[in-house]
Amino acid sequence: MGTTQLETVPEPKYWHLKTVLSEALDSDFAVGEILPNERELAARFGVARATLRQALEQLELEGRLQRRRGVGTTVAPPRVGVSVGAEQHDWPGTAGDSWQAADCAVGAPPLAVARLFDTEPLEEVHTVRRIRATHGQPVAAELLYVPASSVPDLTAIDAPSGPARARSVLRELQRLDLEGQDRAVELGSARADDAKELDRLPGAPVLVVTTRYFSLGRTVAVSVATYRADTCRLTFGDSGDLQISHDSHRQAS
Questions:
Q1: Are 228 and 196 spatial neighbours (Cβ–Cβ below 8 Å)?
Q2: pTM of the full predicted structure?
Q3: pLDDT digits (tens, 9 = 90+) for 202-237
Q4: Contact 75, 50 (CB under 8 A)
Q5: Cα–Cα distance between 82 and 210 in angstroms, integer?
């Protein structure tokens, strides 16, 4: 980074500093590298630490920086694309899937998820927990709800528990003929469990993507994926279609 004093500019000083810092991140730092402390940066650019903090906070909001507990401020990896178009037609866990199965549990789904299945709330489902990471850092956590009736051939002997059972549920799900899917996206706040998975503070902004998978003329699986809003961006595919829903019911999270 350079040491030139910031000149007087018509825009706010912190905003100009943000631009200078952004250019320095592209030329002088690698992904994951830790930035110098605030005192050193403020001295280099001849600004007050309050001005520096404003610039750093803006860069964090834009996904250029990450504040990591116990580490400091690091250069963020490129944003992960979250596709919300209708062109995808794959089951979770197929070849090229970037998610890693972490665990699987059996029990009643949340009421909001049960409504998406149009089934009795107490019907048991397999809840597959998966994590998506980039450059070694988690960027999304998913809960995939699969009713037992969608994978009737799954046995406890084949997959007793944990990641092995999660992978078995995904394999059985792929035996079905995928007839279609729909996807809804909303901005939310990280719950305690999500925050822990994603190395964020509770209440941090997240993107919640809810996907329904259709087969046999009905919904056979529901995915609720929580993405870090600071490291992810929405993509719409070639069609560019975007549907705006005015449903008064909040999506499952």
A1: no
A2: 0.69
A3: 888 888 999 999 998 999 999 999 998 877 777 776
A4: no
A5: 12
**Measured between alpha carbons, how far apart are the two ends of the chain, in Å?**
42
Burial 81-98 (b: 16+ CB within 10 A, else e): ebebeeeeeebbbeeeee
